[in-house]
Design a protein that fits this description.
alpha+beta
């Protein structure tokens, strides 16, 4: 449960938190109320109808206090006089009074400061003079005393230092003699070492010269290799730059285009060039990937591989995870053999299945390379999809090898599907030329390339539901049909994933039997079995080489597209010769020279100083000050109560069909904005009270909002109390009411500021008013008036707002039966069989002051057993007592109070009173009327209805009457009591009217007679303008002289 709506039950009292504000709901039965035609609002008795509060106005005098404190601190004598009473001000005069006192405080502050500053200046000046002289005198004495001590210490120091100098001179002389002996020895050794080094120098330099000569020779060889590689690189770059880029993906670029002159040949792809860039370790094979003379095959487990003289190898009953390896499928350009391991990615799915069981083992035949194509030609028997991972590795050390691949696939036909993805998980680049009849499809979330070459059948095949002329899959003649059935796949990696789908999935029972028949016929032709006999096993039929489908992988033909592995530019070699050595002559140390230190002289003793006379301090002054008292009687606040409809329009004093309204409470804190009250009064209760008119309406508590004058939510600043019964008020609530001076009756709402001081400072003092919106639903009966006001509580005193009222209208629609002429009222009377009558749907008249209209609908429930709707109807819509609050332009004609007609599109002057009338029928052809009203006839349900356009209703505002009447024509077709009901819906309020007629049984005819044709209502055609009067529309429907007077409550 969110914090915005949290309830805790305590007996009959519920505490509610709304947006952080705590309130109390006393859930007791509401007191019964007796309502008259006008229901009065409960009165909230308050202790103040006009403001009699007198408040102390604290005048800020911190600066004066500070000046006094600073004066006392400076030593000035301050004489504070009696407080001066400035009387009682009003809201309008308090600011001037306050400014007057503040100005006086400023003047006194200046005076105190002037005296203080003058005295402080004199004291400072004298003090500084005394301090300077005292400091000078002290400095002189201190300096003299220090000089005496320093002299004594200096004499002692000099005597001791002279003694030390003499001792040090003796010591250093001895040390110099020892050091000079060492220098002599070291110099002799350096001379000897130098002679030895000179002898070794010649041999070292000869070796360096030989090494430099060898390094130069190696450098020149590498430089020549560099120049050759650079020429190759630059040539390669020039060739690529001269070619057109066809397509590219990361690390792969394809240059050139198809050679349309070489259709029917692999040379169709010869003008393409694939360039691979930025892939570390990438290599290209020497010629092609596929079977070579030294290729061989092995399997991952025993029984998986079966060898025969006819085939390179046979894979029998493979399972997921099984693998077979074809050794020496390629050779790198540096002579290393490359092998390929095929691992089955998933469990194999059998092609020939009956009753959920495979009819034979799955076999994969790999043909020998008898044709010399180098292709790995697979033949799949009883297999739906060949789905394997292919891993390339060096045969010698089994290390993976990353290959650059550009493979042409041919002969993709009969709906077979190819999926090839590379090590990076992508399909690389797939070139699918126009006319390939190969389409990209999605299977199990992966892209497959499907052979879709089809030709018309030349004969009927009833067993398959095929007729001559139907399209069916046809054979692609390998390279001869290129580009038909051909694509090119380009990518790189040490691992590929290959999926090849047979194009048909599992076979049908009919296809199984057909294959058995073909196998028997084939064996009969080979004279293996007798005609008419079937002694072939399912394995011999469905695992044979004759029943499989074939795929060729890699080979010479697949390697048609040239591959270029882009290399980085070569690095130019550097020559770094070694330097020969030059032996420098040794640096010999010079002998040390001893110079003795001289002793220090003794200084003379210091002379005593002369001192100055110290001046006297200035006399202490006295300054006088007085404080003032000011009170204020604020103006009486004028809080505002409002009531609006759901469109935000003011409906105070109006009627409302929609019982959902919103009461709004807005405070008036302006009287308190010109002064600041003292803290004692500020701490009193700040509240708002709304005494709900018991039983008159229900407030939606969860939708209550509280906002300040800038739209900020302030719920958290208040405690909300919703009290349902006067008898069950808690002591807490009684205390709040007593302090606020309130005595509400029955149900009421109370909002109390949690922190009075904070609320005063941030809202009252700044005149930031609070608005509380109370969404509510009226509960009173039709014709009753609801009244409401609220009380604003300031400084513990209450002030009433204005009173708002709203009335629930007491109106009803009417339903009448008229004869076809419209002159005779037939309510409750007899209607003969075959008579044409009219039902008048007399809608309610909306009063002049009302809520915003958003619905005005009508529904007539016909008794279709007795009445037949003829399709004829007429409508009249009227509006009166409208006033243009500004200059208007309307899309319909209106009539001014003086009878003048203002046409649609013309200007209506501000302040003009006007009315409008629209008359129309089923034949009216007006775009305005079509938008204004929608008429529907439900033939099955027997209901005739109309809906007035909501935008039009909204545009009428809340002042002015509105009425809509409709006439519908029926034919009485059966005898009996006939009741007809009209439902009028205005802003969600349903109102009904009924009328009854009687039709007697017809006498038995003695002789059938031809009935006379009945006339129908005339079709009045198209309405012009806004139909001020639609011709003499349906004169028969006129009510003139009918004796029927329109009367609506």
């Amino acid at each position: 449960m969110s914090k915005t709506q949290e309830f805790k039950a305590y007996g009959s009292i519920r505490k509610m938190k709304v947006g952080g504000a705590c309130g109390v709901i006393l859930a007791l039965a509401m007191l019964g109320m007796v309502f008259s035609s006008t229901t009065s609002a409960d009165e909230v008795s308050v202790n103040a109808s006009e403001n009699k509060t007198i408040l102390e106005v604290p005048i800020v005098h911190e600066k004066l206090d500070k000046a006094i404190a600073e004066a006392k601190e400076a030593g000035v004598k301050v004489d504070v006089g009696v407080t001066q009473d400035k009387g009682v001000a009003t809201t309008d005069t308090v600011a001037d009074k306050q400014k007057e006192i503040e100005a006086d405080y400023v003047n006194q502050e200046k005076n105190v400061k002037t005296v203080t500053d003058d005295y402080s200046s004199k004291v400072d000046k004298t003090t500084k003079e005394r301090e300077v002289i005292e400091k000078e005198n002290k400095d002189k004495q201190d300096k003299f005393e220090k000089a005496v001590k320093d002299h004594e210490a200096e004499v002692k120091r000099i005597e001791a230092e002279n003694k030390a100098i003499l001792a040090d001179n003796d010591k250093k002389q001895k040390e110099t003699e020892v050091e000079n002996a060492r220098i002599k020895r070291d110099n002799a050794q350096k001379e000897a070492d130098y002679k030895t080094a000179l002898a070794n120098q010649k041999s070292f330099n000869e070796n360096v010269d030989k090494e430099n000569a060898a390094a130069k020779s190696t450098y020149e060889t590498k430089l020549e290799e560099y120049r050759k590689k650079l020429a190759v690189y630059e040539k390669q770059q020039a060739e690529l730059n001269n070619k057109d880029l066809k397509i590219e993906k990361p690390h792969i670029k394809v240059y050139g285009d198809y050679d349309e002159s070489q259709r029917g040949s692999l040379n169709y792809y010869k003008k393409l060039l694939v360039s691979f860039e930025g892939i570390e370790g990438l290599i290209d094979v020497k010629d092609y990937i596929g079977l070579h003379s030294d290729s061989s095959i092995t399997a991952s487990r025993e029984g998986l591989l079966s060898k025969s003289d006819e085939f390179f190898g046979e894979i029998v009953s493979p399972k997921a995870g099984d693998s077979f390896t074809i050794h020496n499928v390629a050779e790198s350009k540096d002579g290393n053999k490359i092998s390929a391991r095929f691992t089955f990615n998933k469990e194999v799915e059998a092609e020939w299945v009956k009753n959920g069981k495979s009819l034979s083992p799955t076999k994969i035949y790999i043909h020998k390379d008898d044709s010399g194509s180098g292709s790995i030609n697979f033949l799949f028997a009883n297999l739906v999809e060949f789905n394997t991972k292919i891993e390339f590795f060096y045969e010698k050390d089994k290390k993976e090898v990353i290959l650059a691949l550009a493979s042409a696939f041919n002969d993709i036909d009969y709906g077979q599907e190819l999926n090839l993805t590379y090590q990076d998980g992508s399909e690389g680049i797939v070139l699918n030329p126009n006319g390939s009849d190969v389409q990209k499809v999605v299977r199990d979330g992966k892209n497959y390339y499907k052979g879709e070459y089809k030709t018309p059948w030349t004969y009927d095949v009833p067993a398959r539901g095929v007729k001559a002329g139907d399209l069916g899959y046809a054979n692609v003649q390998d390279e001869k049909d290129i580009p038909r059935g051909s694509i090119v796949s380009i990518g790189y990696g040490s691992t590929l994933n290959l999926g090849y789908y047979n194009g048909v999935g599992q076979r049908t029972p009919d296809e199984i039997e057909e294959e058995r028949i073909r196998a028997i016929q084939r064996k009969f032709n080979e004279r293996i079995i007798d005609e008419g006999k079937n002694n072939l096993s399912d394995s011999a039929v469905f695992s044979s080489k004759y029943v499989g489908w074939a795929v060729g992988l890699f080979g010479k033909a697949s390697a048609t597209v040239p591959i270029n592995i882009h290399v980085n530019p070569p690095i130019k070699p550097e020559l770094k010769p070694k330097d020969t050595k030059e032996i420098p002559k040794p640096k010999l140390e010079k002998p040390r020279e001893f110079v003795p230190r001289t002793t220090l002289p003794i200084p003379p003793a210091p002379t005593p100083p002369e001192k100055k006379k110290i001046p006297e301090m200035p006399l202490v002054p006295t300054v006088k000050v007085n404080y003032s008292r000011l009170r204020v009687k604020p103006s009486t606040p004028k809080p505002v109560k409002a009531i609006t409809d759901n469109y935000g329009h003011n409906i105070d004093g109006a009627t409302t069909f929609d019982k959902n309204v919103k009461f709004s409470l807005t405070t008036d804190y302006k009287p308190y904005s010109t002064f600041t009250a003292d803290s004692k009064n500020v701490a009193k209760t700040w509240a708002l009270a709304d005494d709900v008119q018991d039983g008159a309406y229900m407030v939606y508590d969860s939708k209550i909002t509280m906002k300040d004058s800038i739209g900020k939510d302030v719920k958290a600043l208040f405690n909300m109390y919703h009290v349902l019964s006067e008898k069950e008020r808690t002591q807490e609530i009684q205390n709040i009411l007593k302090e606020a001076g309130l005595n509400p009756k029955g149900e009421f709402y109370l909002w109390v500021a949690k922190d009075s001081t904070s609320f005063y400072q941030n809202y009252v003092k700044q005149a930031k008013n609070i608005t509380i919106d109370l969404p509510a639903r009226l509960l009173v009966k039709a014709g009753e008036v609801v009244e409401n006001e609220f009380v604003q509580v300031d400084y513990g005193n209450g002030y009433k707002s204005n009173l708002v009222t709203v009335k629930v209208p007491d109106v009803k629609p009417e339903k009448h039966v008229l004869d076809r002429s419209g002159k005779k009222v037939l309510d409750g009377k007899e209607v003969q069989l075959g008579d044409f009558i009219q039902y008048l749907l007399d809608g309610v008249t909306v009063p002049e002051k009302h809520d915003t209209l958003y619905q005005y609908d009508g529904l007539d429930k016909l008794d279709t057993k007795h009445d037949r709707y003829t399709g004829n109807w007429k409508g009249i819509i009227k509006g009166t007592e409208y006033t243009a609050e500004k200059e208007l332009v309307l899309p319909y004609d209106v009539t001014l109070k003086d009878g003048k007609v203002v046409k649609a599109g013309d200007k209506i002057a501000k302040g003009s009173s006007y009315a409008f009338t629209f008359e129309f029928n089923q034949g009216t052809n007006s775009e305005f009327i079509k938008k204004l009203v929608t008429v529907k006839w439900d033939d099955k349900g027997g209901q005739w209805s109309y809906v007035i356009n909501q935008d039009f209703l909204n545009s009428l505002g809340v002042k002015g009457t509105f009425d809509a009447d409709f006439y519908i024509e029926v034919e009485r077709i059966a005898a009996g009591e006939v009741e007809n009901t009209f439902v009028n819906i205005v802003n969600g309020q349903e109102m009904t009217a009924k009328v009854t007629t009687h039709t007697p049984e017809p006498p038995k005819p003695s002789e059938p007679k031809k009935p006379n044709p009945q006339p129908s209502l005339p079709n009045t055609g198209t309405a012009s303008s806004m139909l001020p009067v639609v011709g003499m529309i349906l004169g028969l429907l006129s009510l003139a002289g009918a004796g029927l007077r329109k009367h609506k409550k």
